[in-house]
Amino acid sequence: MTGTQCFFFIGCFLLSCALGSDWRVSMPQNIKVLAGSCVLIPCSFEVPDAYKARLAQVTNGVWRKHSRWFTDGIDVFNSSVSQNILRGKIVGNLTERNCTTILHNIPRNYTEKYYFRVGGGFLYTFPDFVNLNVKASPDKPLVTPVGELMEGTQVTINCSAAVPCPRLPPALTWVPLSLGASKKGQRVNQDGTEVAFSTLSFKASHLHHGQRITCAANYPLEQGGSSDQAAEAVILSVLYPPKNTSASVSLSQPVASGTNVTLTCNSSANPKVEGYTWFRRRGSEVTEMRPGECLTITVTEGNTGLYHCEARNQHGKQNSTEVQISVKGEAWWIWVVAVIALLLCGSVILGLCRLGKSRKSPSNLRGLSVDESSVYANINTVTKSRFMADNEAVYSNEDEAVYNNEDMTYPRKTGSSTGQSGAAIDNYDLYINHTTPSCQRRDIGQPAKSKS
Ligand SMILES: *[C@@H]1O[C@H](CO)[C@@H](O)[C@H](O)[C@H]1NC(C)=O
Ligand SMILES: *[C@@H]1O[C@H](CO)[C@@H](O)[C@H](O)[C@H]1NC(C)=O
Ligand SMILES: *[C@@H]1O[C@H](CO)[C@@H](O)[C@H](O)[C@H]1NC(C)=O
Ligand SMILES: *[C@@H]1O[C@H](CO)[C@@H](O)[C@H](O)[C@H]1NC(C)=O
Ligand SMILES: *[C@@H]1O[C@H](CO)[C@@H](O)[C@H](O)[C@H]1NC(C)=O
Ligand SMILES: *[C@@H]1O[C@H](CO)[C@@H](O)[C@H](O)[C@H]1NC(C)=O
Ligand SMILES: *[C@@H]1O[C@H](CO)[C@@H](O)[C@H](O)[C@H]1NC(C)=O
Ligand SMILES: *[C@@H]1O[C@H](CO)[C@@H](O)[C@H](O)[C@H]1NC(C)=O
Ligand SMILES: *[C@@H]1O[C@H](CO)[C@@H](O)[C@H](O)[C@H]1NC(C)=O
């Protein structure tokens, strides 16, 4: 029995020695320090019962760099010495086993292990240490991810940044400032280190969609000035139902009966519009037409009316304003035909008269007329061939009539030199992509999109 007890006692004693169970220090494992600023090291310790009585005599503490042993380590701060490698202060009450310390103006190359050594009633260097990681510029602040926001909801975005030196906390600023109100604060983490935060609140609007929000941290330094700015940005994604829904028509109205026109529905939504429905209204009668972003109709008296589209996604729907589809009166056409016929007759008669005159002085007039026509023909072939060459890929499937329309709509292109025409085509492509997302509005001479 005595042998077992003895063995037990010895084993216990060895174990407690090996683990140093009663000598214990608590401090963070790692602290990021900003060079030129201070660092607060939260610290508390325990002593074996046998030493508790002598705690009252504990008067000083030392921070030893690199090694626990005085042969290898360097004492960078001793609280009972006035000239130290590092300026500092033990802010905790050592007799209450609080060894919390502030070390000032940490040089850049002071990344090391730091051990605490207590002195006074007894001398002891604790085996646990803190890693001080000294950095020239601060880490980016942390911005809470916000995910997808529903329009109209109140949003709070939290930005937080470490405060290694509580006397000189970072200033946190939001860009853009105008977004909403922010609330600032400082909090102590479980391990005793501190963190500064700023909480920005605003109501999500579709106008915020795609907007970049930045939280910037500016750390002042002990010698004045401040360290590099550290900033983190988030891009807002706001979900919203269709907005700015509009309907447009490819040809200005009225048009001749039998003309094909394309109606295009345009709307902005997030997620993008899932479906479009077209309606025709005639008085109080509303007819639902084919669905789709574009609606091509062959205009007749039978399908004139006010057209509008409805765009929808999972968050809602919206109707566009109405566009009028109408047919030019028949009578108007008869008049036009009559006038053209009259003009033709007139010119034929005039031509006959000229023919009669020209026989009297043939050499003069014939020479002039030949010159004129050849000049005209040259211009025509030059402009047309250039245009065709520049736009071969885009237009290869188009017919003559389309080219002629293009010539009239975009005269700049035909006149541009080869050097400039590249740029002109780029602009033109942009224009197509922007206005005709997927509709083929061939009837006004715009080519189908060549790229997808
Ligand atoms: C130690 O002292 C510091 C500075 O006075 C204080 O903020 C901290 O709360 C104390 N820690 C404990 C465990 O009492
Ligand atoms: C430290 O704590 C002891 C015991 O609680 C107290 O008597 C002493 O005044 C304290 N010292 C300081 C500087 O606060
Ligand atoms: C740290 O750098 C300074 C000069 O910047 C130098 O004087 C000092 O010896 C260096 N200390 C260590 C521990 O490397
Ligand atoms: C701090 O320095 C003083 C004076 O040199 C010394 O007596 C004391 O033991 C040192 N403290 C520790 C904890 O080593
Ligand atoms: C923002 O972050 C700080 C620090 O992590 C935290 O104390 C605070 O409660 C957070 N605020 C909100 C609104 O989430
Ligand atoms: C709707 O149009 C207005 C005015 O043109 C514009 O300010 C707004 O950003 C547009 N909304 C969307 C969702 O595109
Ligand atoms: C109008 O569209 C219809 C059907 O797509 C087509 O058959 C017809 O040839 C087109 N008419 C004109 C003038 O382009
Ligand atoms: C859009 O118009 C159609 C036809 O007038 C109607 O049935 C529908 O409810 C309207 N949609 C919205 C969102 O107002
Ligand atoms: C469609 O709407 C967007 C924004 O609401 C606008 O930028 C674009 O020019 C419009 N397109 C057409 C063809 O109206």
UniProtKB/TrEMBL annotation:
SMART domains: IG (SM00409), IGc2 (SM00408). The keyword Cell membrane does not apply. PROSITE patterns: IG_LIKE. It holds the Pfam family Ig_2. InterPro entries: Ig-like_dom, Ig-like_dom_sf, Ig-like_fold, Ig_sub, Ig_sub2. Residues 1-20 form the signal peptide. Keywords: Membrane, Signal, Transmembrane, Transmembrane helix. Residues 141-237, 242-326 form the Ig-like domain. The chain crosses the membrane at residues 332-353. PANTHER family: B-CELL RECEPTOR CD22-LIKE-RELATED, SI:CH211-171H4.5-RELATED. This is Ig-like domain-containing protein. It comes from Megalops atlanticus. The lineage of its organism: Eukaryota, Metazoa, Chordata, Craniata, Vertebrata.
